[in-house]
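dumping this here so i dont lose it
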C-alpha cells in the first residue's frame, strides 16, 4: 500500500506507534522493526479501519468527534488510557484488527455499534 509511511515522524509524538491521517498511515519504524508479521498486519488493519471511519465521516468531523468523545469519557472515567480505549472508533478498530477480512464485510458507519 502506497499510503503507509514508516519512519520517525514528528506527528507520532513520543508515545504513539501508529496514526492515521487520511489518506496516510504513519508507523514508527522502531516499533515496526520489532513486530512479527502477523502483528504488523493487525496494526495496519487497525489503522485501515480508521481510514474507513475517516472516509465515512470526513477527516475534520472524525477528529472533532474523536476529541469530544475522548474528553467526555476522560471526565466520566477519570483515566485517559481507559478513555482512549472506550472511544467508539478505537473499540471498533481493536475488536476487529485481527480479522483481515473485516473491511470487506464492514457495514457503513459500523462504529456506531460501539457507542
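and the seq i came up w/
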Amino acid at each position: 500500500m502506497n499510503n503507509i509511511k514508516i519512519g520517525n515522524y514528528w506527528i507520532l509524538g513520543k508515545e504513539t506507534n501508529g496514526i492515521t491521517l487520511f489518506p496516510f498511515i504513519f508507523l514508527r519504524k522502531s516499533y515496526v522493526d520489532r513486530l512479527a508479521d502477523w502483528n504488523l498486519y493487525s496494526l495496519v488493519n487497525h489503522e485501515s479501519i480508521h481510514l474507513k471511519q475517516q472516509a465515512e465521516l470526513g477527516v475534520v468531523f472524525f477528529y472533532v468527534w474523536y476529541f469530544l468523545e475522548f474528553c467526555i469519557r476522560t471526565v466520566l472515567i477519570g483515566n485517559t488510557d481507559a478513555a482512549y480505549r472506550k472511544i467508539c472508533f478505537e473499540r471498533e478498530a481493536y475488536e476487529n484488527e485481527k480479522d483481515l477480512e473485516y473491511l470487506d464485510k464492514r457495514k457503513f458507519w459500523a462504529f456506531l455499534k460501539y457507542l
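The longest strand covers residues 24-28.
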